[in-house]
Amino acid sequence: MTEHKMKLSIGPVLYYWPKEQLRDFYAMVAESSADIVYLGEAVCSKRRQFRGDDWLETAEMLAHAGKEAVISTLALIEADSERKTLKRICANGRFTVEANDVGAINLLANQAIPFVSGPSVNIYNDRTLAFFAKLGLKRWVMPVELSRETLAQIQQGRPAGVETEVMAYGRIPLAWSARCFTARAYHLQKDDCQEKCIADPDGLTVYTQEDDAFLALNGIQTQSAQTYNLLGEIGDLRRLGIDVLRISPQSAHMQSVIEKFAAVLAGKVDAREAAHQLEALMPVGSCSGYWFGDAGMQTGAPT
């Protein structure tokens, strides 16, 4: 029996990094073991270190390096200028688009353009998956809060030709808001945020009164403080027929994280041991609760 082969993807950079850091990051990714690279601004349109042409130029570079480049859209459209940018991305005519809201799906479906749905699109059962498949969905990224059991049910009814991608590493994108919590943390109005989130390359960690790491503020996005890590569950993911594992970028140790995943997929190292080794590379610590149907910030199966 042929073993199910999974691809490795790099999700869009969710943080506001300086231009040179972004260029260095994608130069590293071009030489890495990743198969698919998502790029583009998915959180806040005020982040302009990279503009439209920069993203397309980087996508071309990655394509020449043998990667599948996919352009990601904003998850929360709030202004007419953002809607116009969305239309340009959907009409780029060269690269597949990851639609992170239903507005993007509508634009792509109206042009009969196949698309990928991002984790912020609410696909919670196989009926919804089938609905989007009729509109041109070719790959979907499971919403991060779904469990292994829910995914198994959806996989059983998955339409033919639709690939499933699961976020397997990174701080979990939990919510988006019209308010900017990073600006508020710096006592600034959102309209005068001074792009303060560039000072927090992995988001701003929030602690409880008991000094436990709880969340991470990333502009208008709220993330988990802990890093979601499913590397130890590779065998189960393979048995479920998952096509793509997503690594969400962090500011440091990314080359090591990517190659650790690649080594496990190639059967060169033990998955549980490699997952444990990744703990030292995370900003705070790990979690995997959602996968087991538990509170998201928990680690491992409930006892």
Characterization of this structure:
The chain has 10 helices and 12 strands. 31% of the residues lie in helices and 21% in strands. The chain has an 8-stranded parallel beta barrel with strand order 1-2-3-4-5-6-7-11, surrounded by 4 helices. 42% of the residues are buried. The two termini are 34 Å apart. The mean pLDDT is 96. The protein has helices at 19-30, 52-64, 80-90, 102-110, 126-135, 148-156, 181-185, 234-239, 254-265, 271-278, and strands at residues 7-10, 36-39, 68-72, 96-99, 115-117, 137-141, 163-176, 204-207, 213-218, 221-229, 244-247, 286-287. With 303 residues, it is of the alpha/beta class.
Poorly predicted spans: none
Strand content: 15-25%
> How far is the N terminus from the C terminus?
34 Å
**Strand/helix succession:** EHEHEHEHEHEHEHEEEHEHHE
Number of contiguous helices: 10
What is the average per-residue confidence, as pLDDT, rounded to a whole number? 96
| Proportion of residues in helical segments | 25-40%
- Large-scale geometry: globular
Please state the structural category.
alpha/beta
* Biggest sheet character: 8 strands, parallel, barrel
Q: Count the E strands.
A: 12
Rg over alpha carbons: 18 Å
Strand order of the largest sheet: 1-2-3-4-5-6-7-11
